[in-house]
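Q: What residues go here?
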């Protein structure tokens, strides 16, 4: 994708590769957890990190940890690191930070969500489909918190 701003500087964004870097599924209380009435409590944790690879290429890793408890017992825990290599050119430092912290994770999340859903079904649990996440809101909230602490 190429975008032109008023100064005619070209902003370019390319997806080089999307991949699952790590997957873990644990179900420590099987088979007893299957005998309890199903009243799940979901805890979701998101983490984003990025690394500059070379020139204008970056690896962005979205870590998603999903823990579901049933009657205060861990039913299952799924951890996924969904990653991508992106080429980003012609941006200011602030724009680059926004692309890496919001736009890229937004592209990665549907893949992570699918991996989690698949692992949960393989574990013989009821389907789990995570709701969409507003990474833009998370990004700006973190920026605001960083400003307040400095």
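A:
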């Amino acid at each position: 994708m190429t975008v032109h701003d008023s100064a005619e500087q070209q902003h370019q964004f390319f997806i080089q590769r999307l991949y699952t870097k790590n997957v873990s599924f644990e179900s420590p209380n099987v088979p007893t957890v299957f005998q309890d009435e199903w009243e799940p409590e979901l805890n979701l944790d998101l983490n984003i990190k990025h690394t500059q690879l070379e020139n204008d290429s970056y690896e962005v890793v979205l870590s998603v940890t999903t823990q579901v408890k049933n009657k205060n017992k861990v039913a299952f825990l799924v951890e996924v690191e969904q990653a991508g290599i992106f080429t980003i050119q012609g941006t200011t430092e602030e724009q680059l930070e926004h692309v890496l912290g919001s736009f890229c994770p937004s592209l990665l999340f549907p893949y992570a969500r699918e991996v989690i859903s698949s692992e949960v079904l393989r574990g013989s649990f009821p389907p789990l489909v995570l709701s969409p996440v507003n990474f833009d809101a998370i990004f700006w909230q973190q920026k605001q918190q960083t400003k307040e602490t400095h």
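A: Context that may help when evaluating the design: The domain at 15-142 is CATH 3.10.420.10 (Bacterial Protein-export protein SecB). The mean pLDDT is 92.
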